[in-house]
Predict the structure.
Amino acid sequence: EMIRRISCSDTEQRMPYKKDALSLQEINLLKRWIKEGARWDLPWAYQPVKNPEIPKTKKAWYQFSQPKLSPWPQQDLDWFVLDKIQKNQLTPAPKADSRRLGQRVSMDLIGLPLTGQLETTYLQDTSAFAFEKLVDSLLASPRFGERWAAPWLDLARYADTKGYERDARRFIWRYRDWVIRAFNQDIPYDQFLTEQLAGDLLPHPTDDQYIATAFHRNTMTNDEGGTDNEEFRVAAVLDRVNTTWTALMGATFNCVQCHGHPYDPFTHEEYYQFYAFFNNSRDEDTWEDYPALRHFSKDDSLKLLKLHGWLAQEVSTQKADEIRLFVQTWQPSYYSIAADSFRNCELYDTKWLTMRNHARARLKQVNLDDKNQLIWRYAAGVEKGVWQVRLDQPDGPLLFSVEVQKTAGREIQKIDFQAVAGTHDLWFLYDNPALEKPEDSGLMFDWMSFTNSFPGVEKPAGAAMQDTFWNLLRANSEFTPIMIDAPAQMARETHLFERGNWLTPGKEVTPGTPKALPPMPQGAPLNRLGLAQWLCSPEHPLTSRTMVNRIWEQLFGNGLVETLEDFGSQGAAPTHPELLDHLSWRFMHDHRWSIKKLLREIVLSATYQQDARSTPELEAKDPRNELLARGPRIRLTAEQIRDKALAVAGMLSPKMGGLGVMPFQPEGIWNSPWNGDDWKKSAGEDQYRRSIYTFVKRSSPYPSAVTFDLAPREVCAARRITTNTPLQALVTLNDSTFYEAAWFLADTIDKTVDGAVREKIARMYARATGLEMSPETGDILEKLYQRSFDLLGSSDEKKESKEAPQPRKVSTDAVIPDSRRMKALQLVANAIMNLDEFVTKA
């Protein structure tokens, strides 16, 4: 049929339609291909990662004419780059000078400029290993994790709020801190992914492994009244599927939600087979973001450890693990939003089941096998209420009837009942004659857990352990949203959605992976843990390539595949396919998934250490530096620019971790009518902390960061599209952070540097950029100073300004004079922070 169409004389049938016909030579080539079997390979990205042969065709090492410069290659990867450069009749750039190279690698590895003793040691070291020693020091710095966590948080769509209209706060900052620690500890990337995808399913998971699963709890929750909780639970699961593919595999999978992939070998059914891995999690778009890991005080943590040990010894390890999980997470439990069939009751604001007098509601399909106790969290506003639970029908057999006492707030209590076998619909009936008005509510449900009485009470210390259990269960605690799967009796079925519509479910599917990719490893469970094992298998073609490409993009500005989010047939082709596979193979097999080892190899290469300056020949042949015949020259990220300003001014706080902080922001930026939240400027050094700790509100992110291309955090962002706009210059010239940083920089230099204004300007320039100031730049900046000095007019040199920023890191009796000289110096410092040398990595 294809040959008939391309050979047809009828222009309405001939392909390509409304284009020139194929030539006879092209048609014959296609005929020959068909006769030879019409082999059709998968796109390159879906083929196995192989370790290609290093192209050492030219055995002589590349040596520059300058004898002090290092020869090519320094690493095996350089051979691949050199081969491409030579095939395009180009020559690599010389090695960058020590100052530029030190600043470049410092910004790349820790996101901060090279300053202080580390800079002095590096510049004074004349050995051949000076740069290598600097790299090792930077990789060991605790600032490393803060820098590399930032792009990962884009992928994880991390934010301090839940999103949608209400966009209320979410306390998930411990996940951010876990990511920073993971990068600092160089946790192998396969373990890093496994703990985020399925830390809760590992044997005896630690608190950190639970917190890691918050990767997929960064999905948005819709707290607006009147919304359908199941609709937004489904939306969260869809987002987890799409994020897993975009972030970890660099592939577009989201369109398969509605139909088979038009370009890549993925089917509509395979999308929902993959969806099934995530569909059994216990989150249900609840206000409280259940399930969540509760964080206890040190004393309570020790009590929990003691309780677990006693249960393991006196009862069983399985029961000890069950009770520990319940104490830490209140799971497994049914949320009251699952109720239906309401009479004289409702889901208040679609968040909690609330019952009035003579109320009735149903909780479907509750498994009661071997259960004899209900533990529930609730609130009652009045006395004399009676709650009955009946089986299968509103007038069915009575499971229990209790009088509900008034509570001061939400309480956790237990109700014992006679064990009943089987799975039943439970009908809740509530009567309270004290409710005088028909619209008055008397009882609000949060969650319910059908379980067994505390075991081993009759044994020594049993009664004391039971008291410990209840005290811990009711203890006040902070919490972090996490992933937990439902037990078998609460498991969901998964159906594909016809045309992607969750309201039109099609046939039932079970967990599975696309046939175009390798099968699940032998013996892997069909859950998120098995999925993680599949992703991290050496046979998987996408996982290592995606991460290597992302790291390359962070260092060079463009990935070896430009489309970080799309390795498919419609994405960009790799500029150096053999190099990508070489690094991906080494990442898995030689570096054992170590991100620090991979980074070390790349930054110690001759490719990375090239001078970034271009030439007319390069501009004509390779304007985007795809051939890598020079070093990288790219705009710093939003976080790096602000952190650099604070660092060179001596204002940056070294404090790590904790709640998101709020630097200065003008009033009125936040407009939160539905939750009444507002931006409260942090006190003391918290306002000068690294940008990764700045509070992220999805509907109103930090303005200056947005101007410098901060990624939106509603969904996974595989890359930031870098821009260069006049608005960015207005930020560095006028934003309070940069204004204050310029003042501190000018003040510090003025106090510590004796001599003429020219010398002070040179020192400011060197401290801000890490470079020596050229005479031409010095002339311009000195002229700026003099003109500013003249325009500002005379003032009392000793006059103190009430509006001037007060130095945080100088003596408390220091005075910042409101003088022409200081104002002019500050203006010059401000201008330096606006230069390309400051906001660009080269």
User: Anything to note?
Assistant: Confidence is low (pLDDT under 50) at residues 59-69, 795-804, 806-817. The CA atoms of residues 638 and 705 lie 5 Å apart. The longest helix spans residues 229-249.
